[in-house]
Amino acid sequence: MQTDIRIKAAAGICAWNVGAWIRDGIPPKGKYAKMQEALKTTAECRTKEANGEEITYVGYVPNSPEEFTDETPVIMQEASNYYRTERCGYPTSVNKMALQSLDRLAAFDAFQYLDTVSPRPLLLIVGSKADTIYFSEDAYNRAKDPKELYVIEGATHVDLYDKPEFVPQVVEKLTEFFDKNIK
Asked: Quick one: 100 and 139 in the same domain?
């Protein structure tokens, strides 16, 4: 929507700014708190690979609860429970990314041009207990009117994916929003 003016209205559910995640951490540990670590890791991986070593991969999320530590954010635990189990897992999902790509992710800002979306309406839906709520708040703060931040009480980030007590609220809000803004 930021670059295609044909889009009349847009909604985001459980917004996630991958670049901010790499730069700042989850939960955020301060602006650019994790960036130097990401850039160092990228440089080390590329040097090893240039010298003939294999590409270094890491999982997007822990593969199982056995990989959780005291430092594992709730969102990563929830994502593991969602993407790495029968709940939503897929047999060919490899759950990996090349560490040498961290610098590219750190340079990416999914919300960079949200201020250009106006006057097209934007809806952001997030759970009140989502430890990623700050992504939706950041997107909302960057966007200009018309915009709405709709918070579903009691829901976490992943709860809005498929939990029966929350999904109808998401669908109802999306239906209302798009009926009003597209028809």
From this structure: no
- Same-domain pairing of 49 and 123: no
Same domain, 135 and 179: yes
pLDDT (tens digit per residue) in 85-106 = 999 999 899 999 999 999 999 9
**pLDDT band, residue 183 (cuts 50/70/90):** confident
Which residue, 57, 73, 107, sits at the end of a domain? 107
Q: What is the mean pLDDT of residues 73-77?
A: 94
Neighbour-count burial for 74-102, b at 16+ CB within 10 Å, e otherwise: bbbbbbbbbbbeeeeeeeeeebeeebbeb
* Rounded Cα gap, residues 126 and 152, in angstroms: 6
Q: What three-state secondary structure class fits 130?
A: coil
Domain carrying residue 148:
1-17+109-183
| Whether 146 contacts 122, CB under 8 Å | yes
pTM of the model: 0.92
